[in-house]
From TrEMBL:
Start and end residues of each F-box domain: 40-80
Name the UniProt record assigns to this protein: F-box domain-containing protein
SUPFAM superfamilies with a match to the protein in the record: F-box domain (SSF81383), Galactose oxidase, central domain (SSF50965)
Amino acid sequence: MQADPARWGCRSRRQFGLYPAKLVMERKKARAAEENVRLICDDALTEVFRRLPARTLASCRLVCKSWMSVLLDPHFIHEHLSRGQQKLLLFANDRVNDKALAMVLADEKESMYQLSRPMASQSMFVHNSCNGIMCLGDNTGAVELLNPTTGESLVLPMPMYTAGSSQFSSCNWHCLGFCPGTKEHKVVHFYQGTHIDSSQVCCEVYTIGARAWRQVGNFYGAPTDRGVHVNGTVYYLTKFRYVASSRINCLNLESEKFSSMMLPPRKSYGGHCSLAELEGKLCLLVVDGAVEDPPRTMEILMLDSDDNQRWTLQYSLSLPWLMPSCYFTPKHTLFHEGKIWVQLLARGLYCYDPSSKSEEMKIAWTEFDFPFSTHTFIESIVPLHKDYFMKL
């Protein structure tokens, strides 16, 4: 007995393929229109998100899953990061109150906000900052990553080799960097080898989202100072006792391969040298002069991004005379708001304006009651946990 489709409901009509073609076309158009409206809403929402500060976006991630999916998209995260406004971060260890005190000096209102200590150590310091993530360490060699904007933190496994660490140690230090090609953040740990040759430096790498450190080899040339990260490469300066044998060692974070470059030729290196990142480029700071013959000068040579052998003298400025016995290399030299900020000793922050006619540095902030370290910082929503990372 053959079934009569007319006696069946819509479901039977669909099974027998007896829906009128006109009705099918109308439903397809309705679905397409609904999809277009959804896409327009998503585009409008994304455009609104682009205009919001990172601190607001950190709260927006908790509203619903659709908002979270947009705000955790790697393309959106790094596009929003590129629009972020750089700030100046002063980080200090407040041992009296048993907490680490971090103050971010806002660019417009010069406001400050305090960050609570994420680690249990009483001796915490900042290795460096990259894309809004702070790489923190303590005197045991432990490493923790912190995004102050989102409040996320990530304790890394203890490195394979550590004999304790110090913010003043040049032979045992960590550096957080970012690979533009792979969109990965990596922490590099340099430490001195156990061989008789003390100039051998070993290296291990931790990729955020992984579970363990990886050995990537070793290189000759003990660092004279902590290294810097510039555009996917970590640089550090080797011992400077003999200029002819000194060089800059480089670790490419994407290939995880070592290379080296010679120091730029010049008549004299006089005092001390250190590396810094200014305006997105690697710079060599050369301090000339002596304690008995102030004032001393600091020249800033900038490496050409297209030619790793060509250095250009970018700035020349006079260092203030502080005390007769003061002989130092300026630390934490930063480029911020079109000015050069130099931290002298542990409590003094000075500023140099390249647009001014004077080469003198002026004190930028009254001396604090506690020692601090200076860093550049950008608020971001870069996630730290593995579950948040999406493959491109």
